[in-house]
Amino acid sequence: MTFAGKTVWITGASSGIGAALARAFAGSGATVILSGRRAGALAEVAAECPGARTLAFDTTDLAALPRIAADAGPVDILVNNAGISQRSLGLDTGFDVYRMLMEVDFFAPLRLTQLVLPGMVARRSGALINIASIAGKIGVPLRTGYCAAKHALVGWSDALRAETAQYGIAVHVVCPGAVRTNVAVNAVEGDGATRGRSDATIDAGLDPAEVAATILAGVAAGRREIVIGSDVEVGAAALRGSDPEQLFDRIAASAPQVAR
After folding, report:
1. Which parts of the chain are beta strand (E)?
2. Which strand (E) or helix (H) includes residue 227?
3. Closest CA to 168 of 212, 124, 123
4. How far apart are CA 196 and CA 186, in angstroms?
């Protein structure tokens, strides 16, 4: 697949991986539509992307999504990137926080896809790029709700790919590990409060521009699943299939030990 002349709609485009993807797609000749909640930040990214336009909205405002999708118009590639992470033990996480994580990280991209996909089917062409996580392949401590939502995103994407291939639709799942973004700063705690600080793993992660370049290369090559991360992260994802018992032991050893 080539991207020149394509219209690419990216959610969560105001920073991090989304902003890096906007720059990369624009640099490859695509016209990008940038969405997120912060209009000012979107405008700053759009200024770096010739021909870009912005549609600011909250992806969980499901009632508004049909109007937003109509405003976007026909798109060739939809990148479901908007999301939120978590930093809390399952025993300390409220049910409403779990519900919110599923709404943001799973139901919002599902609903937006439902609104965009029929046009792709009618044109017999299009691509979905769903930004999941290595946490969508393995369970990670302090991220029970996030892992659940990303596992759901991966499974739904795999099933949808099988159903829509007959119409010329490509479905790509991206599973990044640690990337230097504000994902940890913006993560929710067990009571729903914003964490407000980063962590060493994220601070030592991959550069978003490097991740975006890898994603574009993988999509161009037709790769249906794109796992990106350190050797340890990619190896852990592979271990889930080859030796899950060893993986479970390793992850259990990394979990916080809390006296109760």
Report:
1. 7-10, 31-36, 53-56, 77-80, 126-131, 169-176, 225-228
2. strand 225-228
3. 124
4. 6
Classify the phi-psi angles of 124: left when phi > 0, otherwise alpha if psi is within -120 to 50, otherwise beta: left
Cα 203 to Cα 99, 103, 200: the distances in Å are 28, 27, 5
Beta bridge partners of 212: none
146 is catalytic: yes
Report residue 174 as tokens: 């991206």
Count of beta carbons in the 10 Å neighbourhood of residue 100: 18
**Could you tell me which CATH class the domain 7-254 is placed in?**
alpha beta
How many whole angstroms from its chain centre is CA 54? 19
> What's the whole-model pTM score?
0.97
Q: Check: CB of residue 215 under 8 Å from CB of residue 129.
A: yes
Rounded Cα gap, residues 212 and 135, in angstroms = 18
Catalytic member of 146, 156, 173, 228: 146
pLDDT in tens, 158-206: 999 999 999 999 999 999 999 999 999 999 999 999 999 999 999 999 9
Break the chain into its structural domains and give their ranges.
Answer: 7-254
> Other CB atoms closer than 10 Å to residue 78's CB: what's the count?
26
DSSP state of 9: E
Six-digit token pair at 222? Answer: 């037709």
